[in-house]
Write a structure and sequence with these properties.
493 residues, alpha/beta, Rossmann fold, 15 helices, globular, hydrolase, EC 3.1.1.-, CarbesteraseB, serine esterase
Length: 493
């Protein structure tokens, strides 16, 4: 029996997708039938509850070259998956129960597909990473349901992933829809009777309203509800920070260098109407930094860390010039750190301390094909590695990868699948990837070839460092051209 990789991804419907043998699946490209492989392997796709064209998958995909079974879990989004009025009728976390029930299905039935239910690795990116993090912490998830986890750019420790006041947000969504705000039972009935279109549009309006005022942590219908009407029987009875329970599994945590691009872009979309910023002085600069902190739900400790980053990475000359475009790299780092990186580092450190030798950490910094993750962002950032960019190398399409990119994709696939099979991420001709043994390290910097680094804190200002290196390079080129021009002029004259 083969090990199993379970991927948690975004969807507006609930279904499972299985990847099996290409010579079986290719004969039935649109048939939603469960087919058992002759031997456990995988490459293209056959589905359980829905179907996709298996011919669209790349032959470099995460399972095409490995003896594993890939299962893709998709769950309800937004209000359909996360809305909570704090009642037993709408308690919240429906999406997490989608994921949990899918994992139980895998445990019961995966042997029929050549998979080993005792060797399950769950992994997800972004919101999928939040879901995997939730599976680690929820007491509703039974022991032994999975053996390993990979969390890419996601964690419950982000300040906006756990709902601050889900009922208040749900009631605002109900008001936007036009529900009579009479009794809790009446509001629940109205929300349940609302169309999907109305729920989605109301939540989007609610998000705009909240983000333009208090920020991410107050957005409902997109976050995990803690406690609520179900009390100790809820999916997440207490915040993970308050829990002393650590599920005994092997884990990879990681993120990308310019995570802040997508979050800073969100700030532009919802708080600034995508208008470029004009600073008149360094006072405007400091006020803007404070506003960004608030939008991403920072606390006093985070404020102190951000202040240190500001003073250590932004020069006084830059602040005095108050040129927003010049300081964008700093804000990209600040937004990424507040919204994602600090939380991921915190969760990794907690598990590494509780489970010595079982936790690995990475930073993905390989510049590949252009990313479409931040369309319309008014400030270009060359050589960025943004949110989700690593997915192009785990599920690559051959028509967008050159030879060097393909080599990186093979490294990534080898690391991920070897971890799923053995619990240790390894790849041929790649430096050993040691587990986290102290706060912030060691970790693997995923470039080509990968590099072992000691202290992850250096990655928290990656964008600033890249920008300075780029500017230095431009200045060196200009200086060289000036010298060359002077030499040519002297020779001519």
């Amino acid at each position: 029996m083969s090990p199993i990789l379970v991927v948690v991804v975004l969807s507006d419907a609930l279904f499972l997708r299985m990847t099996l043998m290409p010579r079986i699946a290719s004969r039935f490209p649109y048939t939603p039938t469960i087919l058992r492989p002759i031997v456990p392997s995988c490459s293209t796709s056959t589905e359980v509850h829905s179907w996709l064209d298996p011919r669209s998958d790349s032959d470099l995909s995460i399972c095409s070259r490995k003896d594993i079974v890939l299962v893709v879990i998709q769950y309800r989004l937004g209000t359909l998956g996360f809305l909570s009025t704090g009642t037993e009728a709408i308690p919240g976390n429906a999406a997490m129960y989608d994921v949990l029930e899918s994992l139980e299905w895998v445990s019961r039935h995966i042997r029929n597909f050549g998979g080993n239910p005792l060797e399950v690795t769950i992994f997800g990116e972004s919101a999928g990473g939040h879901a995997v993090s939730a599976m680690l912490h929820s007491p509703r998830v039974r022991e032994g349901l999975f053996k390993r986890a990979i969390i890419q750019s996601g964690t419950l420790f982000m300040p906006w992933v756990i709902c601050q006041d889900p009922t208040e947000g749900a009631y605002e969504i109900a008001r936007i829809i036009g529900c009579p705000m009479t009794t809790p039972a009446g509001i629940d009935s109205c929300l349940k009777a609302a169309s999907v279109r109305d729920l989605v549009q109301a939540q989007d309006q609610h998000k705009k309203n909240e983000f333009s005022s208090p920020g991410y942590p107050k957005v409902a219908g997109a976050c995990i509800t803690v406690g609520g009407a179900l009390g100790a029987q809820s999916f997440m009875p207490v915040h993970p920070r308050e829990s002393t329970y650590f599920r005994d599994v092997e884990i990879i945590f990681g993120m990308n260098s310019q995570e802040g691009l997508i979050f800073f872009n969100e700030y532009f979309q919802y708080a600034l109407d995508s208008q470029p910023i004009q600073f008149n002085s360094h006072w405007d600069f400091l006020e803007f930094l404070k506003t960004v902190n608030i939008k991403f739900g920072s606390g006093a400790f985070v404020d102190a860390v951000v202040g240190y980053e500001l003073l250590s990475k932004a020069t006084w000359e830059e602040m005095d010039r108050a040129n927003f475009s010049e300081i964008v790299p700093l804000f990209i780092d600040v937004a990424g750190n507040l919204a994602l990186k600090y939380g991921s580092v915190e969760e990794a450190n907690r598990f590494a301390r509780a489970l010595p030798g079982q936790v690995y950490f990475y930073n993905f910094d390989y510049v590949g094909p252009p990313s479409p993750m931040t369309p319309g962002f008014p400030y270009d950032f060359p050589n960025s590695v943004g949110h989700g960019d690593e997915l192009k190398f785990l599920f690559p399409m051959s028509n967008v990868l050159n030879e060097e990119h393909t080599q990186m994709a093979k490294i990534m696939v080898d690391l991920w699948t070897s971890f799923a099979i053995t619990g240790k991420p390894q790849a041929g001709n790649v430096i050993p990837w040691p587990p986290v043994s102290r706060p912030f390290g060691p970790y693997l910097r995923l470039v080509n070839p990968p590099e072992q680094k000691e202290y992850f804190v250096h990655e928290l200002t990656n964008s600033v460092v890249k920008a300075r290196q780029s500017n230095d390079s431009v200045q060196m080129q200009l200086s060289f051209l000036a010298c060359l021009l002077s030499l040519v002029t002297a020779l001519i004259l």
